[in-house]
Amino acid sequence: MADTLEFNEIYQEVKGSMNDGRLRLSRQGVIFKNSKTGKVDNIQASELAEGVWRRVALGHGLKLLTKNGHVYKYDGFRESEFDKLSDFFKAHYCLELAEKDLCVKGWNWGTVRFGGQLLSFDIGEQPVFEIPLSNVSQCTTGKNEVTLEFHQNDDAEVSLMEVRFYVPPTQEDGVDPVEAFAQNVLSKADVIQATGDAICIFRELQCLTPRGRYDIRIYPTFLHLHGKTFDYKIPYTTVLRLFLLPHKDQRQMFFVISLDPPIKQGQTRYHFLILLFSKDEDISLTLNMNEEEVEKRFEGRLTKNMSGSLYEMVSRVMKALVNRKITVPGNFQGHSGAQCITCSYKASSGLLYPLERGFIYVHKPPVHIRFDEISFVNFARGTTTTRSFDFEIETKQGTQYTFSSIEREEYGKLFDFVNAKKLNIKNRGLKEGMKQSYDEYADSDEDQHDAYLERMKEEGKIREENANDSSDGSGEETDESFNPGEEDDDVAEEFDSNASASSSSGDGDSDRDDKKPAKKAKIVKDRKPRKKQPESKKGKDPNAPKRPMSAYMLWLNASREKIKSDHPGISITDLSKKAGELWKAMSKEKKEEWDRKAEDARRDYEKAMKEYSKADSHRGERSKKKKKKQEKLVKGKGDKKGATSKSSSSKSPAKGMSDSFKSKEFVSSDESSSAESKKEDSEDEGAASPPPSSEDSASGSD
């Protein structure tokens, strides 16, 4: 029996939405890592109370109940995995994995059972549906009726907003079944009510997102933002991460709170709450609790009376209540000595902070990118000026982020940082020892290995090296880089103040006149004209044979439909990842079979290319002959027109030269060439040429 079981592409049901991720079962417990947010749920083996296996919409599902009443649902299993899971639960958790199917009769009457944080509507012994009471935002009662309202789900296209239950009256005296039903719901529901006094209040804090000044009231279970126009209540359970970031001017501090789900203002969603503090602001804080309660609840992390900088007090209180670490910039230092880089994202300017496990950009819009979700980064030349560059990041989900207008001086520092973190840099490929080594189930774990992506990168690297070798052999020049300080100033421009002085001095000094043309010729010689692009690169011949596919691509084309049938509804990105896993796990013998097919395809391609090259050379020779013939026609017409004007001048030298010696070869070649030219002229012009005049005929007879 294996000590661990791992499952990819598992979906966790949270507040009505399905979040995909990875599930691992071990002796210590159950760990689920959310692929979207990176959040990790850890269930200890000692906390598990019950395990249920049932058929759901996405195949089969696993429902886990803990001793403290929490319920966790995971879908996406195959039916064949039941035996493996059942044996694992018996061996390591001492639990029987029970099979319970949902009732599909379609009846709308039954019994309601409250268990932990679940409301289960049952018909007989089978559940019809279950409602996590943490999804309930409001519960109201009427005559023999209870209405449940739910939190809006932003990730789903259609959300269930309300359910009404009819509760028939009972004969029992002194017990109202409607009120009893409502109290059971409210005891577990996520209904935020600002009852009691706040632990502490921070007045008029500057908030960048959402913009404005807010009073922050700290309650035991939630955070209340009170502004002039809007109020927000943020449960501490929705806080993912906390960041404390110094501003580049060293006089202000950002305190960033990452939220999931986000707070809403109309149709706008705020995934980050960003507060801006001045380092000079101090505060004396007194908690609205006695010292014993403070010591018992916070265990020395807070005291009843505290004083210090405002940003330190806010971050300290939030860390104690949310019970999460505060992330600060690591050892990165930019060119100016700051721990951030000034850049622009989309239309706004902001600051990019390289952290120990990711990047965060503040503030409009805020962006947090973990290292484990980055596919590659790229350094690109700035589009508007040569004094800046762009930093591009592409995630494994295909999302692209471009941070532009970064000063050129920051390039070395940022490149060294990316290199030290072993991130893949585009066009360079993965070098030896550059593979990431993140813990798969840590807070910033690495996503599954994509064999297809690695293979494509390797092939691209080989093609790039071949292209570089061919360009070096052809002797083509590369583009010269623009160096403003290294230009030759010998040639004066029209607007140059020295232009008139150089021209006037050149008139009076003959020696300088002799030297100047040589100097100008030297400049012209150094600046060679750029060679034209070869004709072969102008356009690709559609009749040319197509390049052969690799063994992996041949296998993928043959297996794509099978993968789709095994994983209904799989996306293109996930299909590529799954194919990479299957190819990596394939035996050597099977791979050799596809390698042979790829080799056969390569031979066929080479044979087709030889035939295509021969046909192409024949076409080239015919086109050259045709071109030469056209040139001769054009040249013959030009000679005919010039013959009449030169005839008188050519007669007298011919008579004087008649007595001079001529070799036989010279005479015969001259006569043959003149005869050929005359013959071509007569053929070309024919009847179009005018009849000879009497003077011409007389001179010809002479």
UniProtKB/TrEMBL annotation:
<keyword id="KW-0804">Transcription</keyword>
<keyword id="KW-0234">DNA repair</keyword>
<dbReference type="Pfam" id="PF17292">
    <property type="entry name" value="POB3_N"/>
</dbReference>
<dbReference type="GO" id="GO:0035101">
    <property type="term" value="C:FACT complex"/>
</dbReference>
<dbReference type="Pfam" id="PF03531">
    <property type="entry name" value="SSrecog"/>
</dbReference>
<feature type="compositionally biased region" description="Acidic residues">
    <location>
        <begin position="474"/>
        <end position="496"/>
    </location>
</feature>
<dbReference type="Pfam" id="PF21103">
    <property type="entry name" value="PH1_SSRP1-like"/>
</dbReference>
<feature type="domain" description="HMG box">
    <location>
        <begin position="545"/>
        <end position="613"/>
    </location>
</feature>
<feature type="compositionally biased region" description="Basic residues">
    <location>
        <begin position="517"/>
        <end position="531"/>
    </location>
</feature>
<comment type="function">
    <text>Component of the FACT complex, a general chromatin factor that acts to reorganize nucleosomes. The FACT complex is involved in multiple processes that require DNA as a template such as mRNA elongation, DNA replication and DNA repair. During transcription elongation the FACT complex acts as a histone chaperone that both destabilizes and restores nucleosomal structure.</text>
</comment>
<keyword id="KW-0158">Chromosome</keyword>
<keyword id="KW-0539">Nucleus</keyword>
<dbReference type="GO" id="GO:1902275">
    <property type="term" value="P:regulation of chromatin organization"/>
</dbReference>
<dbReference type="GO" id="GO:0031491">
    <property type="term" value="F:nucleosome binding"/>
</dbReference>
<keyword id="KW-0694">RNA-binding</keyword>
<dbReference type="Pfam" id="PF00505">
    <property type="entry name" value="HMG_box"/>
</dbReference>
<dbReference type="Pfam" id="PF21092">
    <property type="entry name" value="SSRP1_C"/>
</dbReference>
<keyword id="KW-0235">DNA replication</keyword>
<keyword id="KW-0227">DNA damage</keyword>
<dbReference type="Pfam" id="PF08512">
    <property type="entry name" value="Rttp106-like_middle"/>
</dbReference>
<feature type="region of interest" description="Disordered">
    <location>
        <begin position="609"/>
        <end position="702"/>
    </location>
</feature>
<dbReference type="InterPro" id="IPR009071">
    <property type="entry name" value="HMG_box_dom"/>
</dbReference>
<keyword id="KW-0238">DNA-binding</keyword>
<dbReference type="InterPro" id="IPR048985">
    <property type="entry name" value="SSRP1_C"/>
</dbReference>
<feature type="compositionally biased region" description="Basic residues">
    <location>
        <begin position="621"/>
        <end position="630"/>
    </location>
</feature>
<dbReference type="InterPro" id="IPR000969">
    <property type="entry name" value="SSRP1/POB3"/>
</dbReference>
<feature type="compositionally biased region" description="Low complexity">
    <location>
        <begin position="497"/>
        <end position="507"/>
    </location>
</feature>
<dbReference type="InterPro" id="IPR038167">
    <property type="entry name" value="SSRP1_sf"/>
</dbReference>
<feature type="compositionally biased region" description="Basic and acidic residues">
    <location>
        <begin position="609"/>
        <end position="620"/>
    </location>
</feature>
<feature type="compositionally biased region" description="Low complexity">
    <location>
        <begin position="644"/>
        <end position="660"/>
    </location>
</feature>
<dbReference type="GO" id="GO:0006281">
    <property type="term" value="P:DNA repair"/>
</dbReference>
<feature type="region of interest" description="Disordered">
    <location>
        <begin position="458"/>
        <end position="551"/>
    </location>
</feature>
<protein>
    <recommendedName>
        <fullName>FACT complex subunit SSRP1</fullName>
    </recommendedName>
</protein>
<feature type="compositionally biased region" description="Basic and acidic residues">
    <location>
        <begin position="532"/>
        <end position="544"/>
    </location>
</feature>
<dbReference type="GO" id="GO:0042393">
    <property type="term" value="F:histone binding"/>
</dbReference>
<comment type="similarity">
    <text>Belongs to the SSRP1 family.</text>
</comment>
<feature type="compositionally biased region" description="Basic and acidic residues">
    <location>
        <begin position="631"/>
        <end position="642"/>
    </location>
</feature>
<dbReference type="GO" id="GO:0005730">
    <property type="term" value="C:nucleolus"/>
</dbReference>
<dbReference type="InterPro" id="IPR011993">
    <property type="entry name" value="PH-like_dom_sf"/>
</dbReference>
<dbReference type="InterPro" id="IPR036910">
    <property type="entry name" value="HMG_box_dom_sf"/>
</dbReference>
<dbReference type="GO" id="GO:0003677">
    <property type="term" value="F:DNA binding"/>
</dbReference>
<keyword id="KW-0805">Transcription regulation</keyword>
